[in-house]
């Protein structure tokens, strides 16, 4: 699974759709990000270079698309079918990045979700969809998620899905203007032989 064979791809589960990010999504994406600026600020990646800035929307999409063509990333928007709208609406973003093939067969996953839709199972469902695709379709072996210790909503996501806590990484990423510690969580394909999404959805049904 190398080259253009892995991308583009669209994944669906119920009303939730993971699809490639596009240049023409700028207006809707920017509106969602603007509404969530305070909600996302504490977890926002930053540029450690003196005077460094984050890329513009166009630069971000160009970089993500280049990584996708090189088979090192899967840049998804999280969208949701909503009554009254013809097309699924953007409710977040999920990127599988740092894909390593060969003897490693692993990747890292990151995501954010609109505050108005948080707590409705969107993040764990999206993470489960993407992880299953990486394990069962692409043949990857390990998925890793790194989370700030203070980020309680994201910690609940990995807890719900059964990702293992592998400990602290000191000053791991530059977040919101400073080098920040993270907790590292991981899952391997052997741990979810029947797939992660089905197990998560069955658990939700049981709890409800």
UniProtKB/TrEMBL annotation:
PROSITE patterns: GNAT (PS51186). This is GNAT family N-acetyltransferase. Pfam families: Acetyltransf_3. Residues 16-190 form the N-acetyltransferase domain. Keywords: Acyltransferase, Transferase. PANTHER family: [RIBOSOMAL PROTEIN US5]-ALANINE N-ACETYLTRANSFERASE, GNAT FAMILY, PUTATIVE (AFU_ORTHOLOGUE AFUA_3G00765)-RELATED-RELATED.
